[in-house]
Amino acid sequence: MSRRDPLATPRSRKLAPFYDQDAFGRFAETIARTLGTARFLVIQSVLVAIWVAVNVAFLTLRWDPYPFILLNLMFSVQAAYAAPLILLAQNRQEERDRRQAENDRAVAAATQANAEYLARELASVRLALSSIVTIDELRDQLDEMVTRLEKQARD
């Protein structure tokens, strides 16, 4: 592994089995969404309480006596699978967030460029309009010319 290889990207292996990364990623996101809910915690807590109650109260149904080694093993397996699936889901979300941020930056840059263009156009229109004669100015000039012509005609 060279120093330039990113650690977040696994190295490709020639003998690795093929699987659809996108489908597996969607599966991981579904698991992460499920594990992160209050409903899951309540259901898991109820099942653990039933497990403990059955194994403590009923002598004939004890499949996992007091230190509850099987229950601890199940929690360990759950944690061993849940942690990488949650990390995979977080990585996928991070990638989507990165793409969205890049898109937002591009849209913001285009919007700023458009706003600057419109500001320049507005400034040029203002400059062009500043040299245009208004109706009042034209009327004053015509009145002044008529007055001069009338004065010349009398003289």
Total number of domains = 1
Helix content: over 70%
How would the global form be characterised? rod-shaped
Q: Report how far the terminal alpha carbons are from each other.
A: 105 Å
Class based on secondary structure composition and strand pairing: mainly alpha
* Mean pLDDT level: 88
DSSP strand count: 0
- β-strand amount: under 5%
Count helical runs: 4
Q: Rg to the nearest angstrom?
A: 39 Å
Question: What is the multimeric organization of the chains shown?
Answer: single chain
How would you explain this protein's 3D organization?
- With 155 residues, the protein is mainly alpha-helical.
- The chain has one domain (21-154).
- Helices cover 75% and strands 0% of the residues.
- It has four helices and no strands.
- It is rod-shaped.
- The N and C termini lie far apart (105 Å).
- The mean pLDDT is 88.
Please give the structural blueprint:
Blueprint: H1 21-35, H2 38-57, H3 69-130, H4 135-154
Keywords:
rod-shaped; 155 residues; 4 helices; mainly alpha
Care to give the gist of this entry?
This protein has 155 residues and is mainly α. The chain has helices at 21-35, 38-57, 69-130, 135-154.
